Each structure stands twice: as C-alpha cells, then as structure tokens.
Amino acid sequence: MANEVLTHDVVAKEAAAMLIEESVFIKSINRGREQEFDKDKSGYKVGESVRIKIPPVPIVTDGAKYKEAEAFLNAQETSRLLKVDTQKHVSLQFTAAEQALTLTQFKERFLQPAIETLATTIDADLLKRAIVTVNNYSTVGVNEIAPLAPFGRAREMLARSLTPKTGRIALLSSEFSNSIVDTSGTLFNPNAEIAKQYKEGYVGRARGFDFVESEHIYRQVNGKTSGITVSGNGQTGGNLTVEGLSNGDVIKAGQVFTLTGVEMLHPLTRLSYGKLMQFVVLEDVTAGGATATLKIYPEITPDMIGSNKQANANVSATALNGVGLTFVGGDNDVIDQALCYTKDAFSAAFVPKKVLAGCEGYTFNTETMALRIQTGGNWEEDFEGTRVDVMYGFAMVRGNHAARIGRIG
C-alpha cells in the first residue's frame, strides 16, 4: 500500500536522524553554540559567525597591595570565531513516483545510501579540521612494550593542560584499534551508556578514555620538516617567521614541532613543567623563498617580556634566532593517528537554510541536527530534482585539551 504521508518533512526528519547516527565525531563535540545564532532568521548565509569567549587565567598577587596592572591582565579574555563556512548537499530523486513508495522502501533504496555518503563526508571534514589544530602529540615507539602506553602519555598531556577528567574520548581507526585490542583487550572496561551512544563503534574504556572507532580519521601528511630554523629573536603571538627554506617548500597544516628553550608552563602557577611546548602549524604554507611565516597554536606567550608580566602566559621564554624546529616525523611522512579529546575542545554548529522560492521543501532544525530538503522543477527541460543540504561551521576552542597519538611507518 502506498504511503500517503511521504512528504518533505517526514523525509527531513528521517534524514536528520540517520545523519547524526552515522557521524561519530559530530556526536562527541560541543554543539551548544548553535543556540547563539539568531533563531528568528528565515535562513542563514555563509559567513555568519559567533565568537566563543575563553576565560583568562588569573595571576595570583603576593601581599596585601592591590596591583592594577595585574588586575588588567586578569581581564584579558581570548576568543575563537565559529564561522558558518561550509555547505554540502546530496542529490535525490523525490518525485511523484518516489512519493508512492512506503517510507521503508524509500529509505532503503534512496535515503540510506545518500545520507551515509553525506554523513561520512561531513564527519571526515570536521575531524580533519579538528585534528590539525591539536598541538599535544605522542608517537608510538618502535619497540613499545605496552600498547596503551601512548594513551597514558596523552593522558599526561591533557592533565598538564588542566583538561577536565570527565568525558574523555579516544577516537581511532579500526586498524589502530586492532593494534592495541589484540594484546590489551582484557584491559578495557565496558561502559554500557557510551556503548549505546556509539553503537558498534565503541571499543571499551581504558587510561581514562572511552575508545571509539571511526574510519574517518585523518592521517597526517607532512611536508618539509628538516633544516628549518627560527628567523629573528623575541617572536611572540600566533605567527612564527622561519628560514632555511627553498622556493616551493611546503609545510603542512597539522605538523607539530618544538623549540629548544621554550618550555611549557603550568597554566596557574606559571612554573615550568621542564618539558618543551609543542606547537602545531594551523595552515599550509608554501615558501616563496628562504623564509616563511607559520600560523601556529598555541600562541607564544612568555611569562615575562622584559619586566612586564603577560596575560595567559604559557611558555618560559621566546625562541632564540637560529633555533631549529624539531618536527614530529620526517619529510613527507604519512602518519596514522588517534585523537584523544574532550567535548569542549571543539565546537560545531549546524544551522538551517530556508526553502527557496518556487520550491517545495522543509527545514528540520533541532539541537542535534539542522538540514533542508527541497524539490524544484525545470519546466523547460521537464525535470524535477531533490536535494538535502547541510550548512555548518567549526572551531577549535581549546586545542590543548586534546592530544594526538601517531604511528610512523
């Protein structure tokens, strides 16, 4: 019997549920920023944004005397911009013939394949955007005795960044998972609620993380790593000028490096951990000559510049001119990765688009997903087409509240 209620709203709701079900990473990150977009608008355009405020780390002052300069520093918030910059869609046939199908038939024949492809593409896009912003990095040793040891090191990194202990996730491919489960399966503890959330992707719990599989995880592709040095003393902030390059050399987003003499500070006490701060390159850079400027995270913010304290200090000193950048991996390495993180390390927002004039359609918008499905016809060509559109934005909020595990070779 034909299904008389196979309408755009029914299909949109089904598509939204299937999209979020297939999206492992999307389900695990902060989505609360969607509430900050103006819900009264009839639609959204690429380029709209919200600014996410990150509270400052206050300086504790010795003695009874009030210090106005330190009070000023204690009010210096940082922020991240969550910008709606991506629209993806998948085409469907939702004509009169398809409206005669039952919902089950339509899902199996048309909707399921389309939404699985769309969900995989979106999830992989967001996961890549996230992973290349993470500076904390540990590699699996060639003769690593304990398979979970790298995840223990990742746990240490998150602890040093004062990352909340609850809700930590380790996302890894099935191949990466097999390399640790075969010998460590008995070390994983079950968690029924997490297993329910991630369905078959859930592996178990160990080292303070809930391990979840995803085949969408990005493998780091290195560009040039050797012979690169700091060009100029006293560089601070989110840009670092380097030299030792040749015209056409490429440094890739996601490459992680350290600088001799630049140590990580405890966020509150401002005392050095005695470990080099790890930095990540945020954008691909192609050298036009011997020098180039890298956009990096975290920003280089020493405790003191001259006799002046700095707000939100994170490193013991700036790098000296000529100091080499020591990268994870070598030139052109392709590195398998796992990502350890908490929900609030990253934020995404899915926002609705209005149905265009002259089209039939429906916009579905809830806290879990927003999408639009619409059908339009071309009377000259006697053609009717249907599309499912998703528009979204992403921001790294606290990349140091995440860590990567890499396997080289």
TrEMBL record:
InterPro entries: Phage_coat_Gp5. This is Phage major capsid protein. It comes from Acinetobacter wuhouensis.
